[in-house]
adenosylhomocysteine nucleosidase (Pediococcus acidilactici DSM 20284), 238 residues
Amino acid sequence: MEKKMKYGVICAMEEEIKALKENLELTKQTDINGVIFYEGRIEDVEVVLVRSGIGKVEAGITAAILITNFKVDALIHSGSAGGIGQGLAVGDVVLSAEVAYHDVDATAFGYAYGQLPEQDVARYAADSALIEKFKQAAQDTNLNVKTGLIVTGDQFIASQEKVQAILDHFPDALCCEMEGAAIGQVAHQFHKPFIVVRAMSDTGDDEAGVSFDEFIIEAGKRSANMLIDLFKMEGKQA
């Protein structure tokens, strides 16, 4: 019998974690330097749920703690993003095939754009089995779900000029956000599977701030519901 996975689930914001907390059967709560880790089950699947805070450093620290302190088998990052790929609209969902940093440039030293010095890759590949599980879980929904490159930077992208600057380096990018590649890097270094699941709250243009404020709650729910559907599917298979 296949070993049941213990998932570490990271959200950056309260709007993104709320629906997951509401569905969690809580067994233990741990405070580590002000970050609360919620251990329990969703649909009979063991999870550790945490709100990391916004940005790459917060996400990376949280991912490492989930692996070292809570011994999770895989990392899932859930939340909202700005859609910058062709054909993406507010409310659509993107599953990461890969994640990369759009704000890293060490090309002067011979590295690919987005590649950190001493890292062996410029893009971190999400786990293929997790991608397939999420695709399967999404079959009974009416969501528009795409799989591809998600790019990360410590910036909220809110102009077409900035969107184009990202696409100049990453023409295959589907969406941009502020945590995913940091989680991918930690997973890569610890040899753990990961995936990033993002629902679009805006499209990164000049109206992104207004759109984000209006749709962040719905985007957070959609991304969270993708996880809940996955856990339901896995719970039934147990």
Remarks:
- The chain has one domain: 7-237.
